[in-house]
Design goal:
295 residues, 8-stranded parallel beta barrel, two-stranded antiparallel sheet, TIM Barrel, single chain
Length: 295
């Protein structure tokens, strides 16, 4: 069971491995998966929609041929977003669906695509404005009793939405966007709630979607880049490494989701595990991002 005591320090995101990114071949998928496991990074983050509903099956084709790899990893996947896609012609519009029927069907499909008998974690990908917490709790209970899902969490839920569902069923994580350029989780009680409940927060797009690595005239980005350059001299780290260290400094225990298909970048990320920015250095980056001293 996934917990704060055994989760990998980084989660391997799969969104960009397939058609939405690197378009890896079957052999490249296998090498990538093995490489991550060799680095003791065993938590892989999926969603049914990735690659317009194709990435799970591409990843699963490796596991169908290499059953030994499944025993060495933990798989998270997400459901609840219904995309308009040639692979889902029954979807008339993009919508969110957290009905028990959709959750059950999504789990059954993901298990088949991934070539596995169980999911370590199932996340609800986006809050459905029509979600019924009691109904979700019941289907979660059924899936757990059937051995199809070991643990449950959410993604992109507000603190109040998390509280509503967590009152009916135990949630272990909230995966939200967190970075220096997307700081809402620090101020909207999401991370406070995670600390209070002992819930694992994971951060998608922890590098700000690449904004901090491009040439720009944006003053806030330029300030952050300048501060990162100053800190890089002290720690001998690249900008992405410093951004991971900044997130990991928070006492809620933020786990960044790495969105790369390059093993060398994943190896580089691991070099920050022994780096502990000072309190003031953390606030140096915060001040650069907001453009003023804290109030």
């Amino acid at each position: 069971m996934l917990s704060k005591d055994n989760i990998s320090p980084f989660i391997i995101g799969t969104m960009r491995l397939g058609k939405w990114g690197s378009n890896l071949s079957a052999k490249e998928y296998e090498r990538f998966i093995e490489g991550c496991i060799d680095l003791d990074l065993i938590d892989f983050d999926h969603a049914d929609i990735y690659g317009h509903y194709t990435t799970e099956s591409e990843f699963g084709n490796v596991l169908k041929n290499r059953a030994d790899l499944r025993k060495k990893m933990r798989i998270t996947t997400k459901c609840g977003i219904k995309l308009i896609s040639e692979n889902r012609p029954q979807h008339a519009i993009k919508s969110y669906d957290l009905s028990s029927r959709h959750i059950k069907n999504s789990v059954e499909t993901s298990l088949k695509e991934l070539g596995t008998d169980y999911l370590d974690v199932l996340l609800l990908h986006r809050p459905d404005y029509l979600f019924n917490s009691k109904e979700i709790a019941e289907i979660f209970s059924d899936l757990k009793k059937e051995g199809k899902v070991l643990a449950f969490g959410v993604s992109n839920f507000s603190p109040s939405q998390f509280d509503l569902l967590n009152a009916s069923t135990q949630l272990i994580t909230n995966q939200v966007e967190i970075s220096l350029v997307h700081r809402n989780a620090f101020e909207n009680s999401t991370l406070d709630q995670c600390q209070k409940l002992g819930v694992i927060p994971s951060a998608w797009s922890p590098l700000g979607g690449g904004l901090l690595f491009n040439e720009t005239k944006d003053k806030s980005i330029l300030r952050i880049q300048k501060t990162l350059k100053e800190l890089s001299r002290k720690y001998g780290l690249q900008n992405d490494q410093l951004l991971y260290a900044w997130l990991r400094k928070h006492p809620a225990g933020i786990i960044p989701v790495l969105g790369t298909s390059k093993l060398e970048r994943i190896k580089a990320a691991q070099k920050v595990l022994d780096i502990n920015l000072t309190h003031e250095e953390w606030y140096m980056l915060w001040e650069a991002a907001i453009g003023r001293e804290v109030d």
